[in-house]
Design brief:
Blueprint: H1 14-28, E1 30-36, E2 42-44, H2 46-52, H3 63-68, H4 72-84, E3 90-97, E4 103-113, E5 122-129, H5 131-153, E6 157-162, E7 167-170, H6 173-178, H7 182-186, H8 190-193, H9 199-211, E8 221-226, E9 232-237, E10 240-243, E11 249-258, H10 260-310, H11 316-347, E12 355-357, H12 359-376, E13 380-384, E14 393-395, H13 397-413, E15 419-429, E16 432-441, H14 448-451, H15 463-469, H16 475-485, E17 489-494, E18 500-507, E19 530-534, H17 538-548, E20 554-558, H18 561-570, E21 575-579, H19 587-597, E22 606-610, H20 615-624, E23 628-631, H21 636-659
Parallel strand pairs: 13-15, 19-20, 19-21, 21-22, 22-23
Antiparallel strand pairs: 1-2, 1-5, 3-4, 4-5, 6-7, 6-11, 8-9, 9-11, 10-11, 12-14, 15-16, 16-18, 17-18
Helix pairs in contact: 10-11, 10-17, 11-16, 12-13, 13-16, 18-19
Length: 660
Amino acid sequence: MTETVPRPVAATPFHDLNALAPLAAKLAGVGFWRLDHVTRAFEWSEEMYQIYGLDPAQPPPDIDTINGFCHPDDRQRLLEHQTVNSGSDAEIEVRIVRPDGQIRHVVARSSFMRDVDGGAPTRIGVLTDITEIKRAEAEAREREQRYRFVTDHAHDMIVRVSLDAHLSYVSPGSIRVFGYTPEEMARISPRDMTHPDDLPKVTEAIGELVDRRLPHLSEPLRYRAQRKDGRWIWVESNPMLVFNAEGQAIETIDIIRDVTETKLFEAELEEARAKAEAAAAAKSAFLANMSHELRTPLTSIIGFSRLMRERGDLPGEAQQHARRIYDASEALLAIINDVLDLSKLEAGHTELEIQPFSLRQLADEAAGLLAIQAAAKGLELKLELDPRTPELIQGDVARLRQVLLNFLSNAVKFTNQGSVVMKTRWRRLKTGPKLRVQVIDTGAGIAAENLGRLFERFTQAEVSINRTHGGTGLGLSISKAIIELMNGRIGVDSRLGEGSTFWFEIPSQAAEGRAEAYAVDTEMSWPDLRILMVDDTAVNRELVKLMLQPMGLEIEEAGGGADGVQAAMTKAYDLILMDVRMPGVDGLEATRVIRAASALNRRTPILALTADVQSENAAACRSAGMDDVVAKPISPQELMTKIAYWSAAAADKTRRASVA
């Protein structure tokens, strides 16, 4: 068997090593030098030129010149080093200043070459440029100092936690957060400090972080932890998962802060919010009750005074007294409406009821209501409507009617001659369609210094106007709040002696469907129409009967919700008028029972009679099954119009059902 002998590796020739030495020195940034102590001759390698920033074409400088490159602050130390270590091996670190001004950090190491007699005429050495190393060390120290400064002075506690819940680092913030020194904290398990009720939540969150390899939680983790003094505090934790070079999760770095005061503040805010909501609810209930209590007696005052005023058989003085009672009660109603509207707006309980409506119909209606007053003063009342306006647009027609009537009534009130013109313009803009409405009068105008106060509460342009024309000064303030609720703008342009232009501009989308339209011929009668009037107040029932009986309607009465339900169970009616606020069974409950259990009147139109004119009350009425709402004090025109509309709608449904 032949034994294989390893082939020896050829040694590198000595002259090849000499050739490679300069390349190795260049790569390492190391220069070589030699000094003859007898002749003072100085030699160095090419790399030395690079370190000192000198031209390699020039001869090497002498030793004194080399020493002159040393930084002034290090030069004395270099000379002492050379004297003390003149006969031994030595090493020194100094700075040199190159001709271009750069400062370089170098390390010089040297030794002696001794002759056969033991003398040491020659020193040889190496010079290493360590500038980049020194720069990296300085940057590392700076980063370390910044990190230490942050961790040592941070109000929060910074910790490194292994996956088995051991603390490997704790910042001094532990004293501020938990009362423990970092050394004490390192000996405590985080689990032992966590409130038992919160421990499952914390464990689950950290487990999810590790299992799903998430860099951090989606939101900070809040839980209770115990301080050194035994107090339980709320803390907020922001753990971040750390991976090693192999991509394995090894620990978390966490920033923990005391948020006890924040939690207390949040609890106080929540309590304050709950109290505010309760107060708002109480205010809303108070407003609803006050609306009911104020409007209910006004219903009788206005209703009966209107009936007296319209009688033709009263003596002249009695007729005048009835007219004054009616006018005063209408003025009182206007004031009550303003105050209640303002209170609702301030309470934030005004909600818009967006529905399709006809601008033409709204304008005609508003102008019609002011036509008699304008004619009495000899004023021309005109409408100039933009023909580009869609047939139907979206909006809260009731609130827009309120603003428009305020503008028109003010214009008629404060204009003694000339005209009142309502203009509309509908434009498509980049931000969406806009409706602009202007009411232009030829009145006395308003002084410039008074324009800014017109939309303030309880303010009118002149005290003398207040005395002459009356009013609360709330109308424009309420109009401003309504238009702003619609994301619109409102304003006035006026000059003293030249009339005024009040305007508003609101977003206004075109609508589909049909507008709610009521129409009635006041000369017609419905002799075959049987109506059930449900109200716990006898005087209200009497008033409605007096309003409707001249129209030939058959009116039956029920003195409360329970009586109304019983009547609806035993006899069919063409329409039911239902008061809302009644003791025992109220109008909402009575309506629900009739809709659910009365075979005779399950589909009969039911109109709510209510003094609570808040939008949420109207919504509650419709939700209970009522078809429409008539506000108290009752307007005979409105009542008869809605009776005509809903009785006609019910008859039409019956005809279609019989045909089908």
